[in-house]
Amino acid sequence: SDVCFIGTWEPEREVWLRHIADKLPHISLVIWGNMWLENCSHPGLKKCVRGNAVYNQEMAKAFKSSKIVLNFIRTQNMFSHTMRTMEVPASNAFLLTQRSIEQAEKLFKEGTGIACFENYDELISKILFYLDHEDQRKQITTNSNQMVKAYTLKKQLKSYFEHCPINNV
């Protein structure tokens, strides 16, 4: 596919994906996730649903089979990241995610290690850009894959405890 989204149906996610279906009907958009067939009201999106949620190897295969993998940040995580932030690069696939400070500045550098969007117009623009610029898409994929290898839980916890103000608790 050109664009892939894997995640549970939520009204906000449907709105984002509706914009893609409406503005870019010529691209192949695929969706895996729970509750899409039951809740999605947009006929153009319903035909994009490939099935319920996929995990582990199946999810990695879906990522690798797509030129662009989308990530939407839930409202409560707006300044943070999600597991997809790590899973997609670890699968050596290209991630286009809603912009958050943590993703775009702290974990990766936007434009070299991650691609981000903030609004509907920027989402459409970035999809078109990265579909047309395979070399840049592949470079960000390679960079993000290398960067994500540095983020092991053991390393992150060690760093946290080294900088924790109450270190000996």
How would you portray this structure in words?
With 169 residues, this protein is α/β, with parallel strands linked by helices. Helices cover 50% and strands 13% of the residues. The chain contains 9 helices and 6 strands, in the order E-H-E-H-H-E-H-E-H-E-H-E-H-H-H. The chain has a 6-stranded parallel sheet, with helices on both faces. Strand 4, helix 5 and strand 5 form a beta-alpha-beta unit. Helix 5 crosses helix 8. The chain starts with a strand and ends in a 6-residue tail after the last helix. The model has no long low-confidence stretch (mean pLDDT 91).
Task: Give the beta-strand count.
Answer: 6
The parts where pLDDT drops under 50 for at least 5 residues are none
Task: Give the overall silhouette.
Answer: globular
Gyration radius from CA atoms, angstroms:
17 Å
| Average residue pLDDT | 91
Task: State the helix count.
Answer: 9
**Element-level helix/strand string:** EHEHHEHEHEHEHHH
Question: Span from first to last CA?
Answer: 49 Å
Strand order of the largest sheet: 3-2-1-4-5-6
What is the percent of helical residues? 40-55%
